# Entry
Amino acid sequence: MRSLIDIFELSTDEVDRLIAKAEDIMSHPTAYVDKCRGKKLATLFYEPSTRTRLSFEAAMYELGGNVLGFSEAQSSSAAKGESVSDTARTVSCYADIIAMRHPKEGAPLVASVNASVPVINAGDGGHNHPTQTLTDLLTIKREKGRLSDLTVGVCGDLKFGRTVHSLISALSRYEGIRFVLISPSELRIPGYVRDGVLENKKVPYEETTDLDGSIGKLDVLYMTRVQRERFFNEEDYLRLRDSYILTPAKMESAKEDMIVMHPLPRVNEISHEIDSDKRACYFRQVMYGKFIRMALILMLLEIE
Ligand code: ASP
# Structure
């Protein structure tokens, strides 16, 4: 039995196979409508979510399975003081697979050690978000036709943005990837990603505060929200939240075929006028998320 806590637990080959499976599901959805008949997914969300939880649920329904769970800690026994490990043991009696989001880094890992069914990390604090990364990889593959030889700009809150940490880890394994890390100096990428991944794997990267000066060289621009809920004080958040706002004027300097991605929710960092730009693919990215999660559920439940 396998869980998915960190994107590194999947080999590049497995990631490529998940992408291929998601593409097959997109082309032949009716072939999959009964694959999870009789199976149950539990979504245990201790933190707010729209896309991740609903896409997991939609994925399970589209595979013919059922869903149970909670969407806030207050409505679960966590409010009475139950530990994540006890909850994981309990839910293993009701469900075949668990997707867990938690504000504490490592909580899904603790759940996976104690559960008797596969556990998927659906976001743990400011740490990791592997299924967003699978979504992002499928998006890049579909929109750019490849996962190699790309200059990828990642812009915004690189410190607390968990999607960025997982994405850099995953993309670093492909050939010819270069990163441009664009953030205010207070929100730079954490050392464990810079040293542990980029330096360690000798992946070319630069760190800058300058979006305008960098946008022209990018094939992918991955915008992120400043993660208000991870700040220790509101003043810092207010000072930093509008550091980068992508506007049509900025897009004029970008390549014709650059794509703009965002894990969403967007707050202020992409002007709504960009939505109609053909390079904006963040809503298509949402759609890809459901298909890759269908592929992942099938893989972890060992269903062909
Ligand atoms: N939805 C993503 C996450 O859960 C990105 C974000 O919240 O800014 O990490």
Summary: The mean pLDDT is 97. Residues 282-300 form the longest helix (19 residues).
